[in-house]
Amino acid sequence: MLVNTNDILLHAQKNRYAVAAFSVYNMETVQAAVNVAEQEQHPVILAVGERYFSTVDIEGLSSMIRTLAHNSSIPIALHLDHAYKKESILRAIRNGFTSVMFDGSPHPYEENVRLTKEMTEIAHLAGVSIEAEIGSLARGAFSDEEEGSGTLTDPNLAEEFAKETEVDFLAAAIGTVHGLNITEPAIDLGLLEKINDKVDVPLVLHGGSDTSEEMLKEVIKRGICKINVNTDVSIVAMNFLTEALSKGSYSHLSNVMEDMQKEMEKYMSNIVRVFKGDYTSDKSK
After folding, report:
1. How far is CA 172 from the centre of its chain?
2. End-to-end CA distance of the chain
3. 28-61 core/surface letters (b: 16 or more CB in 10 A; e: else)
4. Model confidence over 84-128: pLDDT tens digits?
5. Comparing C-alpha atoms, which of 92, 115, 89 is closest to residue 104?
6. Are the C-beta atoms of 227 and 19 separated by less than 8 Å?
7. How far is CA 97 from CA 261, 263, 272, in A?
8. Contact 272, 10 (CB under 8 A)
Protein backbone atom coordinates (compact mmCIF):
# COMPACT_ATOMS: atom_id res chain seq x y z
CA MET A 1 0.00 0.00 0.00
CA LEU A 2 1.18 3.48 -0.84
CA VAL A 3 1.30 5.65 2.27
CA ASN A 4 2.40 9.09 3.34
CA THR A 5 6.10 8.97 4.13
CA ASN A 6 5.57 10.85 7.38
CA ASP A 7 3.27 8.11 8.66
CA ILE A 8 6.12 5.63 8.23
CA LEU A 9 8.71 7.87 9.84
CA LEU A 10 6.62 8.94 12.81
CA HIS A 11 6.06 5.29 13.64
CA ALA A 12 9.77 4.64 13.24
CA GLN A 13 10.57 7.56 15.52
CA LYS A 14 8.12 6.41 18.18
CA ASN A 15 9.46 2.85 18.14
CA ARG A 16 13.13 3.76 17.63
CA TYR A 17 13.87 2.01 14.36
CA ALA A 18 14.76 3.19 10.85
CA VAL A 19 13.52 2.73 7.31
CA ALA A 20 15.68 2.44 4.21
CA ALA A 21 15.11 4.91 1.37
CA PHE A 22 16.48 3.27 -1.77
CA SER A 23 17.08 5.36 -4.87
CA VAL A 24 15.21 3.93 -7.87
CA TYR A 25 15.46 4.65 -11.59
CA ASN A 26 13.68 1.84 -13.42
CA MET A 27 11.63 -1.32 -13.04
CA GLU A 28 14.60 -3.39 -11.84
CA THR A 29 15.54 -1.07 -8.97
CA VAL A 30 11.89 -0.62 -7.94
CA GLN A 31 11.14 -4.34 -7.94
CA ALA A 32 14.35 -5.16 -6.06
CA ALA A 33 13.43 -2.71 -3.29
CA VAL A 34 9.81 -3.89 -3.09
CA ASN A 35 10.89 -7.55 -3.06
CA VAL A 36 13.21 -6.88 -0.12
CA ALA A 37 10.46 -5.04 1.76
CA GLU A 38 8.04 -7.90 1.18
CA GLN A 39 10.63 -10.46 2.23
CA GLU A 40 11.46 -8.65 5.46
CA GLN A 41 7.89 -7.44 6.11
CA HIS A 42 9.27 -3.96 6.69
CA PRO A 43 8.27 -0.56 5.22
CA VAL A 44 10.39 0.91 2.45
CA ILE A 45 10.78 4.32 0.83
CA LEU A 46 11.41 4.54 -2.91
CA ALA A 47 13.32 7.72 -3.74
CA VAL A 48 13.63 9.43 -7.10
CA GLY A 49 16.11 12.29 -7.39
CA GLU A 50 15.26 15.46 -9.27
CA ARG A 51 18.55 15.09 -11.16
CA TYR A 52 17.13 12.04 -12.97
CA PHE A 53 14.06 13.81 -14.33
CA SER A 54 15.78 14.28 -17.69
CA THR A 55 16.33 10.54 -18.17
CA VAL A 56 13.50 8.92 -16.19
CA ASP A 57 9.86 9.01 -17.29
CA ILE A 58 8.48 10.19 -13.94
CA GLU A 59 4.86 9.75 -14.97
CA GLY A 60 5.45 6.16 -16.10
CA LEU A 61 7.68 5.25 -13.15
CA SER A 62 5.28 6.65 -10.56
CA SER A 63 2.37 4.83 -12.19
CA MET A 64 4.26 1.53 -11.98
CA ILE A 65 5.20 2.17 -8.35
CA ARG A 66 1.62 3.01 -7.39
CA THR A 67 0.45 -0.25 -8.97
CA LEU A 68 3.08 -2.33 -7.16
CA ALA A 69 2.28 -0.56 -3.89
CA HIS A 70 -1.45 -1.19 -4.34
CA ASN A 71 -0.73 -4.92 -4.64
CA SER A 72 1.57 -4.98 -1.62
CA SER A 73 0.65 -5.42 2.04
CA ILE A 74 3.80 -3.50 3.07
CA PRO A 75 3.73 0.28 3.58
CA ILE A 76 5.56 1.83 0.62
CA ALA A 77 6.30 5.53 0.22
CA LEU A 78 7.30 7.38 -2.94
CA HIS A 79 9.72 10.21 -2.26
CA LEU A 80 11.20 13.02 -4.35
CA ASP A 81 14.84 13.39 -3.35
CA HIS A 82 16.95 16.58 -3.50
CA ALA A 83 14.65 18.88 -5.43
CA TYR A 84 15.87 22.42 -6.01
CA LYS A 85 13.04 23.61 -8.25
CA LYS A 86 9.41 24.32 -7.40
CA GLU A 87 8.36 22.82 -10.75
CA SER A 88 9.87 19.47 -9.78
CA ILE A 89 7.97 19.44 -6.49
CA LEU A 90 4.70 20.27 -8.27
CA ARG A 91 5.36 17.54 -10.85
CA ALA A 92 6.02 14.97 -8.14
CA ILE A 93 2.86 15.92 -6.26
CA ARG A 94 0.79 15.65 -9.44
CA ASN A 95 2.14 12.14 -9.96
CA GLY A 96 1.25 10.77 -6.56
CA PHE A 97 4.52 11.11 -4.65
CA THR A 98 3.82 10.86 -0.93
CA SER A 99 6.70 13.11 0.12
CA VAL A 100 9.10 15.60 -1.40
CA MET A 101 12.47 16.97 -0.36
CA PHE A 102 13.27 20.59 -1.00
CA ASP A 103 17.02 21.14 -0.72
CA GLY A 104 17.66 24.77 0.06
CA SER A 105 21.05 24.06 1.63
CA PRO A 106 23.02 25.85 -1.14
CA HIS A 107 21.31 29.11 -0.08
CA PRO A 108 22.12 31.31 2.92
CA TYR A 109 20.18 30.30 6.03
CA GLU A 110 17.49 33.01 5.78
CA GLU A 111 16.83 32.20 2.12
CA ASN A 112 16.71 28.48 2.87
CA VAL A 113 14.05 29.19 5.50
CA ARG A 114 12.01 31.39 3.17
CA LEU A 115 12.05 28.96 0.25
CA THR A 116 11.46 25.90 2.44
CA LYS A 117 8.43 27.55 4.07
CA GLU A 118 6.96 28.14 0.63
CA MET A 119 7.55 24.52 -0.43
CA THR A 120 6.13 23.26 2.86
CA GLU A 121 2.91 25.17 2.31
CA ILE A 122 2.56 23.72 -1.20
CA ALA A 123 3.23 20.16 -0.03
CA HIS A 124 0.93 20.33 2.97
CA LEU A 125 -1.92 21.79 0.92
CA ALA A 126 -1.65 18.67 -1.25
CA GLY A 127 -1.49 16.33 1.75
CA VAL A 128 2.14 15.46 1.02
CA SER A 129 4.91 15.45 3.63
CA ILE A 130 8.18 17.32 3.14
CA GLU A 131 11.84 16.92 4.02
CA ALA A 132 14.42 19.69 4.09
CA GLU A 133 18.12 19.99 4.79
CA ILE A 134 20.20 22.23 7.00
CA GLY A 135 23.94 21.88 6.78
CA SER A 136 25.39 20.35 3.63
CA LEU A 137 26.98 17.03 2.70
CA ALA A 138 30.19 16.98 0.72
CA ARG A 139 30.38 14.82 -2.39
CA GLY A 140 32.48 11.68 -2.18
CA ALA A 141 33.59 9.24 -4.86
CA PHE A 142 31.15 7.77 -7.41
CA SER A 143 28.47 10.37 -6.70
CA ASP A 144 26.47 12.39 -9.22
CA GLU A 145 24.96 14.51 -6.45
CA GLU A 146 25.61 18.25 -6.44
CA GLU A 147 28.73 19.25 -4.53
CA GLY A 148 27.95 20.44 -1.01
CA SER A 149 30.01 22.52 1.34
CA GLY A 150 30.38 19.80 3.96
CA THR A 151 29.12 22.20 6.64
CA LEU A 152 27.85 20.25 9.65
CA THR A 153 24.42 21.01 11.07
CA ASP A 154 24.21 23.49 13.93
CA PRO A 155 21.79 22.03 16.54
CA ASN A 156 20.38 25.44 17.51
CA LEU A 157 19.79 26.42 13.90
CA ALA A 158 18.23 23.00 13.26
CA GLU A 159 15.74 23.59 16.07
CA GLU A 160 14.89 27.06 14.79
CA PHE A 161 14.69 25.88 11.19
CA ALA A 162 12.36 22.95 11.92
CA LYS A 163 9.98 25.11 13.93
CA GLU A 164 9.94 28.00 11.48
CA THR A 165 9.51 25.94 8.31
CA GLU A 166 7.22 23.25 9.81
CA VAL A 167 8.88 20.51 7.76
CA ASP A 168 7.95 16.92 8.57
CA PHE A 169 11.45 15.44 8.69
CA LEU A 170 14.92 16.91 8.58
CA ALA A 171 18.19 15.89 6.94
CA ALA A 172 21.13 16.62 9.21
CA ALA A 173 24.76 16.80 8.12
CA ILE A 174 26.82 14.88 10.70
CA GLY A 175 29.84 13.78 8.65
CA THR A 176 28.57 11.37 5.98
CA VAL A 177 29.09 12.13 2.28
CA HIS A 178 27.12 11.53 -0.87
CA GLY A 179 28.72 8.55 -2.56
CA LEU A 180 31.73 6.69 -1.15
CA ASN A 181 34.10 8.04 1.47
CA ILE A 182 37.41 9.26 0.05
CA THR A 183 38.98 9.39 3.52
CA GLU A 184 38.08 7.70 6.80
CA PRO A 185 34.51 8.78 7.67
CA ALA A 186 34.18 11.06 10.67
CA ILE A 187 30.57 10.82 11.78
CA ASP A 188 29.89 13.01 14.80
CA LEU A 189 27.58 11.00 17.06
CA GLY A 190 27.72 13.66 19.77
CA LEU A 191 26.47 16.24 17.30
CA LEU A 192 23.64 13.92 16.26
CA GLU A 193 22.59 13.54 19.90
CA LYS A 194 22.47 17.32 20.30
CA ILE A 195 20.40 17.72 17.13
CA ASN A 196 18.01 14.98 18.23
CA ASP A 197 17.58 16.70 21.60
CA LYS A 198 16.67 19.97 19.88
CA VAL A 199 14.50 18.75 17.00
CA ASP A 200 11.14 17.02 17.39
CA VAL A 201 10.69 15.74 13.82
CA PRO A 202 12.25 12.49 12.50
CA LEU A 203 15.87 12.84 11.36
CA VAL A 204 17.27 11.64 8.04
CA LEU A 205 20.75 10.32 7.22
CA HIS A 206 21.90 11.13 3.70
CA GLY A 207 24.92 9.28 2.41
CA GLY A 208 24.11 5.93 4.00
CA SER A 209 26.27 4.04 1.49
CA ASP A 210 29.77 3.07 2.61
CA THR A 211 28.81 3.54 6.27
CA SER A 212 29.59 0.58 8.50
CA GLU A 213 26.83 -1.56 9.95
CA GLU A 214 27.96 -0.68 13.47
CA MET A 215 27.87 3.05 12.74
CA LEU A 216 24.42 2.82 11.19
CA LYS A 217 23.21 1.08 14.34
CA GLU A 218 24.65 3.91 16.41
CA VAL A 219 22.97 6.67 14.41
CA ILE A 220 19.63 4.86 14.60
CA LYS A 221 19.98 4.70 18.38
CA ARG A 222 20.45 8.47 18.32
CA GLY A 223 17.35 9.36 16.35
CA ILE A 224 17.91 8.63 12.65
CA CYS A 225 14.67 7.27 11.19
CA LYS A 226 15.40 7.31 7.45
CA ILE A 227 18.62 6.07 5.83
CA ASN A 228 19.26 7.01 2.20
CA VAL A 229 21.06 4.37 0.14
CA ASN A 230 22.07 4.85 -3.49
CA THR A 231 25.73 4.45 -4.43
CA ASP A 232 26.36 0.97 -2.99
CA VAL A 233 23.44 -0.49 -4.96
CA SER A 234 24.47 1.31 -8.16
CA ILE A 235 28.04 0.04 -7.88
CA VAL A 236 26.82 -3.54 -7.50
CA ALA A 237 24.83 -3.18 -10.72
CA MET A 238 27.74 -1.62 -12.62
CA ASN A 239 30.17 -4.29 -11.38
CA PHE A 240 27.79 -7.03 -12.53
CA LEU A 241 27.52 -5.53 -16.02
CA THR A 242 31.24 -4.83 -16.27
CA GLU A 243 32.09 -8.42 -15.35
CA ALA A 244 29.53 -9.80 -17.79
CA LEU A 245 30.93 -7.68 -20.63
CA SER A 246 34.53 -8.61 -19.80
CA LYS A 247 33.62 -12.29 -20.01
CA GLY A 248 31.65 -11.76 -23.20
CA SER A 249 28.69 -13.48 -21.57
CA TYR A 250 25.01 -12.68 -21.99
CA SER A 251 23.20 -11.43 -18.90
CA HIS A 252 19.56 -10.54 -18.61
CA LEU A 253 18.62 -7.45 -16.61
CA SER A 254 16.80 -9.71 -14.15
CA ASN A 255 20.24 -11.02 -13.12
CA VAL A 256 21.33 -7.46 -12.37
CA MET A 257 18.18 -7.03 -10.28
CA GLU A 258 19.10 -10.09 -8.21
CA ASP A 259 22.49 -8.60 -7.32
CA MET A 260 20.98 -5.22 -6.44
CA GLN A 261 18.41 -6.96 -4.29
CA LYS A 262 21.13 -8.76 -2.34
CA GLU A 263 22.81 -5.44 -1.60
CA MET A 264 19.51 -3.93 -0.45
CA GLU A 265 18.93 -6.96 1.76
CA LYS A 266 22.17 -6.19 3.56
CA TYR A 267 20.80 -2.84 4.67
CA MET A 268 17.27 -4.01 5.34
CA SER A 269 17.95 -7.23 7.23
CA ASN A 270 21.32 -6.63 8.88
CA ILE A 271 20.82 -3.02 9.89
CA VAL A 272 17.31 -1.63 9.69
CA ARG A 273 15.50 -4.79 10.72
CA VAL A 274 17.36 -4.93 14.04
CA PHE A 275 15.65 -1.70 15.00
CA LYS A 276 12.20 -2.34 13.55
CA GLY A 277 10.78 -2.25 17.07
CA ASP A 278 7.23 -3.47 17.38
CA TYR A 279 6.19 -2.70 13.81
CA THR A 280 4.60 -6.04 12.99
CA SER A 281 2.35 -5.96 16.04
CA ASP A 282 1.76 -2.21 16.10
CA LYS A 283 1.15 -1.26 12.49
CA SER A 284 -2.46 -0.29 13.14
CA LYS A 285 -1.38 2.60 15.36
Report:
1. 12
2. 16
3. bbbbbbbbbbeebebbbbbbbbbbbbeebebeeb
4. 999 999 999 999 999 999 999 889 999 999 999 999 999 999 999
5. 115
6. yes
7. 23, 25, 23
8. no
The predicted structure's pLDDT at residue 202: 97
| 144, 171, 192 from 182: Cα distances, Å | 15, 21, 22
Residues near 218 by Cβ (< 8 Å), separated by ≥ 6? 189
* Alpha-carbon gap, residue 90 to 95, rounded angstroms: 9
Residue 135 backbone class (left: φ over 0; alpha: ψ -120 to 50; beta: rest) = left
Instruction: HSE, CB side, 13 Å, CA atoms: give it for residue 14.
Output: 11
Give residue-wise pLDDT tens across range 142-194.
334 454 446 788 899 999 999 999 999 999 888 865 444 445 567 889 999 99
Side chain identity, residue 257: M
The set of catalytic residues is 81
CB proximity list for 158: less than 8 A, separation 6 or greater: 134, 135, 170, 172, 195, 198, 199
What are the DSSP calls for the chain, one per residue?
-B--HHHHHHHHHHHT--EEEEE--SHHHHHHHHHHHHHHT--EEEEEEGGGTTTS-HHHHHHHHHHHHHT-SS-EEEEEEEE--HHHHHHHHHTT-SEEEE--TTS-HHHHHHHHHHHHHHHHHTT-EEEEEES-PPB-BT--SPP---PPPPHHHHHHHHHHH--SEEEE-SS--BSB-SS-----HHHHHHHHHH--SPEEES--TT--HHHHHHHHHTTEEEEEE-HHHHHHHHHHHHHHHHHT----HHHHHHHHHHHHHHHIIIIIGGG-TTHHHHTT-
